[in-house]
Amino acid sequence: MAKYRKKPVIIEAIQLNWFNWDKVLQFAGVGRLEDGRPEGHVPEDGSSNCGLLIPTLEGVMLVIEGDWIIRGIKGELYPCKPDIFEATYEPVQEA
Fold first, then answer.
1. How far apart are CA 84 and CA 44, in angstroms?
2. Pairing of strands 12-15, 37-38
3. For 34-72, what is each residue's pLDDT tens digit?
4. CA separation for the pair 71, 82 (Å, rounded)
5. Residue 94: what pLDDT?
6. Which of 34, 40, 85, 93 could form a disulfide with 68 if both were Cys (CB 3.0 to 4.6 A apart)?
7. Are 66 and 17 in contact (CB under 8 A)?
8. What sign does the dihedral 28-79-57-47 (CA atoms) show?
9. Residue 14 backbone dihedrals phi, psi, to 5 degrees
10. What is the tens place of the pLDDT at every residue in 14-30?
11. In which band, very low, low, confident or very high, does the pLDDT at 87 lie, cut at 50, 70 and 90?
């Protein structure tokens, strides 16, 4: 069977946490205020974890604190778990 290597592609991504919530909302184009509260999802189990609902090509998906939100080459968004992100992507030095 033939083998293939993924073409190198530079993507934009941001990791979700409480400290960059505004930047995440701007990056993903979601989280606008509704009734004085950010739209999205915040767990009600008393934990400090945050979560956000983002639109993807497969439908609306939940991104939880620590996950990465990736913007693909056509502008699409998708979530990525931290261990997969670390194994798949590396930082790019901008010129």
1. 27
2. unpaired
3. 555 555 655 556 665 678 888 899 998 889 889 999 999
4. 15
5. 78
6. 85
7. yes
8. negative
9. -145, 140
10. 999 878 888 988 898 88
11. very high
- Cβ contact 63:25 at 8 Å: no
Q: Which residue type is seen at 36?
A: G
Please give the C-alpha separations between residue 85 and each of 37, 44, 49, 55, 90, in angstroms, as whole numbers.
30, 27, 19, 19, 8
Q: Where are the domains of the chain?
A: 12-88
DSSP 82: H
Cα→Cα distances 65→3, 7, 24, 42, 69, Å: 35, 29, 11, 10, 11
| 36/17 Cα distance (integer angstroms) | 20
The dihedral through the CA atoms of 11, 15, 16, 20 has a sign that is negative
* Lookup: tokens for 61: 């998906």
Write down the pLDDT at residue 22.
Answer: 83
